[in-house]
Structures are given as structure tokens and as C-alpha cells.
């Protein structure tokens, strides 16, 4: 599936002023690492969509330079460029009179792939996004739920094995429960494909849940902070970021902070296995640990790796890990 190696995206002094004088992006420099999911987040009108659309050249920047790996974006042929970039937007924009199969096959067909390869690829992608090809490939978009349509949109964007995926509020049109499920599936999908993804949302929770890194922007495409979720939540760069991420950032931080491997306290005497006490797997989050702590009455939670108990965490430990 992951045939094409991911590449980084670099912006240097990028500015966008629209014809009516609106400055959507003032001067932005950023390097988005290859194979990572970077979320652009910020209030409405801060230039998020403009930035995405400059990367795939639906919009030309007024100044500055951008690179996709070693290729300068503004110097290459825009059509060829767009074939290397998957683009998913809100409400997807599927072709209504084409089946799911034909929608997903759009770009491979354009690229002149042999029929057999197109068919295999389409089935593989539908599987990957959790839609059984036997059941869904022949349906039309109006015969799908909103969440299923979004999945087809993701499958279509991945079809030609793009080096980069740009996603503009792809999950915002579906209800919160479906949204949560799509986010989970999408994270699993990214484990498999490891694309360089730029994901736009105005929802901080979504940003924290999905992002390897988060770019917080304010009006005029001004960069306020660029950091992994845990850093953003524990050390917001300024008042704008602190306010934007919200007063419940401590709770959000619990969910993105992994249980530490080092510094666990030894199991108390008599507790030789994690089965005898509330326990969480190594690889879980501090929120999981806290939830297990609150359920049990031991005052501590065992951390296990497979069947082996590694040690315990107390509420004080959880607190001190958060404060690190
Ligand atoms: N074609 C255009 N002409 C003039 N101004 C525009 C144009 N497109 C966008 N803008 C303005 O540029 C600014 C940035 O818009 P953009 O759509 O990039 O913001 P956004 O952060 O994606 O917003 P939202 O979260 O509401 O989708 C806004 O002030 C918007 O009104």
C-alpha cells in the first residue's frame, strides 16, 4: 500500500493577499515532516484553507516559496503536482452519477492504469477504509451514509498513492459519534500508509486526537505555535494558544500523555501479578491509568506489558508525569 515514500512539505515566507486586499496569510514559514500528520488549527478565517490550497496550487501564493520534498511547488506543472497530492474536503465532492468504484478509480483511470490494476486497487482501498467492496462498490453516493461518503472520499484521495494528503475539515459534516469512529479508523489507516498529511480543523479536540504535530494559527495565517499535542497542552506558547486550546487542557493532556516506562514504583508485597489489581497496558495513556485508578480501591494501578506487571502508578505519579 505504501509504495511511494512520503516527503516533507516546506513553506518559506509564504504570503497570500487576495485581489480585494484581504491578507489571508501574512508570512508563514513551516516545515512539515515526512510521514507525519500535521494539523492546522485556528479560528475561522485564519487562513487554514488558503494554506492547503496553496500547497496544491488551487491558489497561487503572492510571495514566498514552497517545496514538496525537493520539488519547488510553484515551479512544477500544477496538474502533475495535484496527481501527487490527495485532497479531501468537507462533504467530499464525490461524483453523484458515478458508483463508489468509479469514484475511487478516478485518478488511476486518468493515469491510464490497466483495468485489472484499477479494479484491484479500488477493492484494496475500500477494504482499507472499512467498506466491504462486495457490498458498497456498485452503490451510488446517495446510497451511503455521510460517514461512508467521507470514507469513500479518503479512499479516492489515496487511490493513486499520493505522496501527500491534504484534508480540509473532512469529518466536520458528520455527527459526533460517527466523527469519533472516523477519527479512530483514520488513525489506524495512517499507521498503515504513513503519508505526509496536512489536516485542517477548527476543533482543538480533533487536532489533539489526530495530530503528530499541531500548528496553531491566528488571523492572517500568523503562526502562534507549532508543537506536538502534549507540548501544546502543557506549555502553550502564549495567551492566544492557552485560550484557544481551552481551560480543560489538563484533561486533554491526560489523553495524549503516554504511561511512562521508566520510574514506575515496584509492585506492593503480595501482588505478584497485574491480574490481582486494577491495571493498564503500557502503551495506554495517563487518562486510562486514572480511569483504572478511580475504578479500583487500591490507590494505585499496575502497569503491564503483555502479561508482565512492570510496576505501579499512584495518583501522585500521574500528577508528576503531567508536570514534567
Ligand atoms: N477568494 C477570496 N477573496 C478574498 N478573500 C478571501 C478569499 N478566500 C478567502 N478569503 C479570506 O481569506 C481569509 C482566510 O480564509 P480561509 O478560508 O483560508 O480561512 P479558514 O481558516 O480556512 O476559515 P474557516 O475555518 O472558516 O474555513 C478570510 O478572511 C477569508 O474571508
TrEMBL record:
Q: Which GO terms describe its molecular function?
A: ABC-type quaternary ammonium compound transporting activity; ATP binding; ATP hydrolysis activity
List, alphabetically, the InterPro entries matched.
AAA+_ATPase, ABC_transporter-like_ATP-bd, ABC_transporter-like_CS, P-loop_NTPase
Q: Which domain of life is it from?
A: Bacteria
Q: Which residues form the ABC transporter domain?
A: 9-244
Report the PROSITE patterns cross-referenced here. Answer: ABC_TRANSPORTER_1, ABC_TRANSPORTER_2
Q: What keywords would UniProt list here?
A: ATP-binding, Nucleotide-binding, Transport
Q: Report the EC code(s) recorded for this entry.
A: 7.6.2.9
Q: Which Pfam families match?
A: ABC_tran
Q: What class of enzyme is it?
A: translocase
Q: Which SMART domains match?
A: AAA
Q: ATP-binding: present as a keyword of the record?
A: yes
The UniProt similarity line reads: Belongs to the ABC transporter superfamily.
> What name has this protein been given in UniProt?
ABC-type quaternary amine transporter
- Organism equals Catellatospora bangladeshensis
Amino acid at each position: 500500500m505504501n509504495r511511494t515514500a512520503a516527503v516533507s512539505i516546506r513553506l518559506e515566507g509564504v504570503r497570500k493577499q487576495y485581489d480585494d486586499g484581504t491578507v489571508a496569510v501574512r508570512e508563514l514559514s513551516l516545515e512539515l515532516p515526512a510521514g507525519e500528520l500535521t494539523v492546522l488549527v485556528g479560528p475561522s478565517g485564519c487562513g487554514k484553507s488558503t494554506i492547503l490550497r496553496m500547497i496544491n496550487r488551487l491558489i497561487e501564493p503572492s510571495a514566498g516559496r514552497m517545496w514538496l520534498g525537493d520539488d519547488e511547488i510553484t515551479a512544477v506543472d500544477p496538474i502533475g503536482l495535484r496527481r501527487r497530492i490527495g485532497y479531501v474536503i468537507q462533504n467530499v465532492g464525490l461524483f453523484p452519477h458515478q458508483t463508489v468504484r468509479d469514484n475511487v478509480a478516478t485518478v488511476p483511470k486518468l493515469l491510464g492504469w490497466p483495468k485489472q490494476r484499477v479494479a484491484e486497487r479500488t477493492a484494496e482501498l475500500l477494504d482499507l477504509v472499512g467498506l466491504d467492496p462486495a457490498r458498497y462498490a456498485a452503490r451510488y453516493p446517495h446510497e451511503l451514509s455521510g460517514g461512508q461518503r467521507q470514507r469513500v472520499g479518503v479512499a479516492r484521495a489515496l487511490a493513486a498513492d499520493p505522496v501527500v494528503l491534504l484534508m480540509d475539515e473532512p469529518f466536520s459534516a458528520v455527527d459526533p459519534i460517527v466523527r469519533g469512529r472516523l477519527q479512530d479508523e483514520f488513525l489506524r489507516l495512517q499507521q498503515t500508509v504513513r503519508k505526509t498529511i496536512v489536516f485542517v480543523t477548527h476543533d482543538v479536540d480533533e487536532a489533539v486526537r489526530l495530530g503528530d504535530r499541531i500548528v496553531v494559527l491566528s488571523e492572517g495565517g500568523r503562526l502562534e505555535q507549532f508543537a506536538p499535542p502534549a507540548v501544546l497542552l502543557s506549555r502553550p506558547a502564549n495567551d492566544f494558544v492557552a485560550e484557544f486550546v481551552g481551560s480543560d487542557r489538563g484533561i486533554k493532556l491526560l489523553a495524549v500523555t503516554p504511561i511512562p516506562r521508566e520510574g514506575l514504583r515496584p509492585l506492593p508485597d503480595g501482588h505478584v501479578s497485574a491480574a490481582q489489581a486494577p491495571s493498564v497496558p503500557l502503551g495506554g495513556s495517563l487518562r486510562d491509568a486514572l480511569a483504572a485508578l478511580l475504578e479500583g480501591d487500591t490507590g494505585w494501578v499496575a502497569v503491564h506489558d503483555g502479561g508482565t506487571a512492570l510496576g505501579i502508578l499512584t495518583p501522585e505519579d500521574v500528577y508528576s508525569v503531567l508536570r514534567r
